[in-house]
Write a structure and sequence with these properties.
The chain is of the alpha/beta class. The protein has two domains: 182 residues, FAD/NAD(P)-binding domain, CATH 3.50.50.60; 123 residues, FAD/NAD(P)-binding domain (3-Layer(bba) Sandwich), CATH 3.50.50.60. It has seven helices and 20 strands.
């Protein structure tokens, strides 16, 4: 049996390793567009804040270690299309632009999600960042000594972690959040207020109930940010306002939520036979709320192990 896994960061590698342990005879191919696998992006805010200096601490395994397990890796390759009828995917080698088809008996989609950026004036500035890729954080770290004022847009998990770390660098740090409470999807009002108090006690400037409408530039550099209420001078902007699942290439072949997340059951099975999904590209079945979107590393790795177990069951 041949299992093809698209995505090798969190859920994909959890599934690959579990499947190989359970059935060493299964051929497993992992296709990943980055040059690395098994990366813990949750550590990026703390790497930025110098809690540790070696970026290798965010990698659970190297590509060489994965291949020694008998798992074949196609790094710097990207899947451009799915042909579910012929059970194959169209793969592009990002180094050579060569394209080829890879057939599968079972397919797992762990393609992740991309950080959202608003379509506003100035969002394309080189002083505007997101915080989910190592290359982006390294770019920010190199520029950090030239910044004095930093604005974080978004008051969720990532935004708060970034603020907590950046305020220690001596910069003036601001958080802009459209809602009137922090983390209100996760916590109740009382707990949300305590989070706001704690982050402000650390020296972070908090602006709730404001939406960013434009980013001003002078001489090609970010100079200020305009919200629905005020204007704030800033040298850099970090967006942490959510994610969009990387599922556009599916072209409607699978049942998805409105935001594009692939709908799965409790075993990671999709609406197509022999196709599984997990991680930030997929929904999570919730006993009370139904199918929800929770792009978290914990759910990604747990569901990845479930898919790895189910995908090798011969039936």
């Amino acid at each position: 049996m041949k299992i093809v896994i698209i995505g090798g960061i969190a859920a994909g590698m959890s599934a690959a390793a579990k499947a190989k342990r359970l059935d060493p005879s299964t051929e497993i191919i992992v296709i990943e567009q980055e040059e690395y696998v098994s990366f813990g992006a949750c550590g990026l805010p703390y790497y930025l804040g110098e809690e540790f200096s070696d970026e290798n601490e965010m990698f659970a395994r190297t590509p060489e270690q994965i291949e020694r397990l008998g798992i074949r890796l196609l790094l710097k390759h990207k899947v451009q299309a799915l042909d579910s009828e012929k059970k194959r995917v169209l793969v592009e080698d990002l180094a050579t632009n060569e394209r080829f088809y890879e057939k599968y008996d079972r397919l797992m989609l762990a393609v992740g999600a991309s950080p959202l950026l608003p379509a506003i004036v100035g969002s394309d500035s080189k002083d505007v960042y997101t915080a989910t890729k190592l290359s982006e954080i390294n770019r920010f770290k190199q520029a950090l000594p030239s910044y004095r004022k930093i604005t974080i847009v978004g008051g969720g998990f990532i935004g708060l972690e970034l603020a907590d770390q950046l305020v220690k660098t001596g910069n003036e740090v601001h958080i802009i959040e459209t809602k009137t409470e922090l983390m209100n999807r996760t916590f109740d009002q009382e707990f949300s207020e305590k989070i706001a108090e704690a982050i402000q006690e650390k020296g972070v400037n908090l602006h709730l109930g404001e939406s960013v409408v434009a980013i001003e530039q002078q001489g090609g550099r970010v100079h200020a940010i305009q919200t629905s209420k005020q204007r704030y001078e800033t040298d850099a902007v970090l967006f942490a306002i959510g994610f969009a699942p990387n599922t556009g290439f599916l072209d409607g072949q699978l049942d998805c939520l409105e935001n594009g997340a692939i709908r799965i059951d409790t075993y990671g099975r999709t609406s197509q036979k022999d196709i599984f999904a997990a991680g930030d590209c997929a929904s999570i079945p919730h006993r009370l709320l139904g199918d929800v979107y929770l792009p978290l590393a914990t759910t990604a790795n747990k569901m990845g192990r479930i898919v790895g177990s189910i995908s090798v069951v011969r039936r």
